[in-house]
From TrEMBL:
Residues 19-453 form the Major facilitator superfamily (MFS) profile domain. The lineage of its organism: Eukaryota, Fungi, Dikarya, Basidiomycota, Agaricomycotina. It is a multi-pass membrane protein. The keyword Transmembrane applies. It is found in: Membrane. The chain crosses the membrane at residues 20-42, 54-75, 87-106, 118-137, 149-169, 181-199, 293-312, 333-352, 358-385, 430-450. InterPro entries: MFS, MFS_dom, MFS_trans_sf. GO terms for cellular component: plasma membrane. One of its GO terms (molecular function) is transmembrane transporter activity. Its main location: membrane. The keyword Transmembrane applies. Pfam families: MFS_1. This is MFS general substrate transporter. Keywords: Membrane, Transmembrane, Transmembrane helix.
Length: 488
């Protein structure tokens, strides 16, 4: 059983309206989970007062949320490639909403910590499935804007969540519980959206269902989809689902390089969110009201940087369409090469202009440039990995997500000690130097990426599948036998 040419059941032949509905539904989930992370951290003080807990205990809730985002996609992303995207979306969104209700009703900090861990477990779907869904339904030359919106929804909502969380907590009649209740209400509405709008986008799953219906209607057991031929046992399926992201992370140079680069940058972002307000207060001797104003400016920096990054990525999409015939997948990386230069320069400027003799708006401008660069490489990481690993985009992105969220969890643990020992200026200089060391990554891939991929066993299998598609074979997902050969 395979798709005929132009078959409307083929996810890549969905109408544009249906594709955008699925894309935006996935982006909303990504935005909700990002906002949940930042709005939680802004409500520490209210929570500490209400539950009589320490800041360290409250911070554990944030760390476990990040841990869930790093580890769970190792299983969920690959499992969705075997069982389908839609069931996992529905189950995860429902359980994520219930975990938020649990948080809002928590009688003590221990319940909060458990609920936050569960939110990370179920909310991680927003980070692990969206990129795969976009790769399922959009052709490579069409993915630029959908992936840009995916990255925009994550970063923009990260700042937006803290702003709205701060407004709610500032009201003496509300507090931290209402932050969680608002999230639960929004998540409840989203559950309805997923049930009504989200369709199955994994072509192998759609073909398997068609084959089952055909066997039932005809009574002929010979009808099979390619994914059903030599189908592995459930134990083998679980093993493959759990190990494929780690396999790609440990063996694929492209996944490794982007994981290190994006992970380091993401760790710096978390550190800056933890330390910028304190830095401005100590350097410029801000009063409490001025510190609050600086905090709001920091959140606006995230907004502005995200918008600039979105515009840059839209321009990058035009470059991709222009140079893809000659550069292939590496045509995705032109603006990432520019961002690789902007990141260390902006960190140098930020570190060396945070002085009482220089207006505080100057380091904030540098910080805005830094956030725009972060947005660019965040989006390019998803797009480039989706292009290079096609059917296994979710697994490749799950490996990258593990590295990114691990660094996002670890970096804040030593931020204050590092700045206390080195000062802000030299601590930021160290980060800028490390960022400078990583700057050649996209440049190397632009010139040698295709050669690197030619030596990859996974990339060769995907290339063979794409060649079969060009010859008229519409089923582009390798069979389980081929998949097992990738695990050798």
């Amino acid at each position: 059983i395979k798709f005929d040419e132009g078959d409307p059941r083929d996810p890549q032949n969905f109408s544009y309206a249906r594709k955008w509905a699925i894309t935006l539904t996935g982006c909303v989930f990504s935005g909700i989970t990002a906002a949940s992370a930042s709005s939680y951290s802004i409500s520490y003080e209210s929570m500490m007062h209400d539950l009589n807990c320490t800041q360290l205990q409250a911070t554990i809730g944030l760390s476990l949320y990040v841990v869930g985002f790093g580890i769970v996609p190792l299983v969920s992303s690959s499992f969705s490639e075997e069982t389908g995207r839609r069931p996992l979306y529905i189950v995860s969104s429902v359980l994520f909403m219930l975990a938020e209700v649990m948080n809002a009703l928590a009688p003590n900090i221990q319940t909060v910590i458990v609920s936050r861990m569960l939110q990370g477990v179920f909310g991680s779907t927003g980070a692990s499935l969206v990129g795969g869904c976009i790769a399922d339904i959009w052709q490579p030359h069409e993915r630029g804007l959908p992936m840009s919106l995916f990255a925009f929804s994550a970063l923009f909502s990260f700042g937006l969540g803290s702003v709205f969380g701060g407004l709610i907590v500032a009201n003496p009649h509300l507090g931290w519980r209402w932050v969680q209740w608002m999230h639960a209400i929004i998540s409840g509405v989203y559950v309805l959206d997923v049930i009504l709008v989200m369709s199955e986008t994994r072509s192998s799953i759609v073909l398997t269902r068609i084959a089952k219906d055909t066997r039932k209607m005809t009574g002929d057991p010979r009808y099979r989809s390619r994914a059903e031929i030599n189908k592995p046992s459930m134990l083998s399926l679980i093993k493959t689902s759990c190990t494929r992201p780690l396999y790609l992370l440990l063996t694929e140079p492209i996944v490794q390089s982007f994981s290190i680069w994006v992970g380091f940058t993401w760790g710096v972002v978390y550190c800056l969110l933890e330390s910028v307000t304190s830095e401005f207060q100590s350097v410029y001797n801000f009063s409490i009201s001025e510190t609050g104003f600086a905090f709001l400016c920091l959140r606006k920096v995230i907004f502005i940087g995200s918008i600039i990054g979105l515009m840059v990525n839209i321009y990058q999409d035009t470059l991709y369409k222009k140079y893809f015939p000659t550069k292939g997948q590496e045509a995705r990386l032109y603006m990432a090469c520019i961002a690789a230069i902007v990141l260390p320069i902006s960190m140098f400027i930020y570190g060396w202009t945070a002085s009482p003799h220089i207006p505080w708006i100057v380091p904030l401008i540098a910080l805005t440039a830094f956030m725009a660069g972060v947005f660019v490489i965040f989006q390019v990481a998803f797009l480039y990995l989706a292009d290079c690993y096609g059917p296994y985009a979710s697994s490749a992105q799950a490996g990258q997500s593990l590295a990114r969220n691990t660094m996002g969890m670890v970096f804040p643990l030593f931020t204050q000690q590092m700045f206390a020992g080195m000062t802000y200026k030299w601590g930021l200089t160290l980060w800028a130097l490390l960022s400078l060391v990583m700057a050649p990554i996209p440049w190397v891939l632009v010139f040698f990426g295709s050669k690197i991929r030619s030596h990859s066993k996974v990339s060769r299998k995907i290339l063979e599948a794409e060649e079969q598609q060009l010859d008229g074979e519409k089923t582009v997902v390798p069979s389980p036998t081929e998949e097992r050969s990738m695990q050798v």
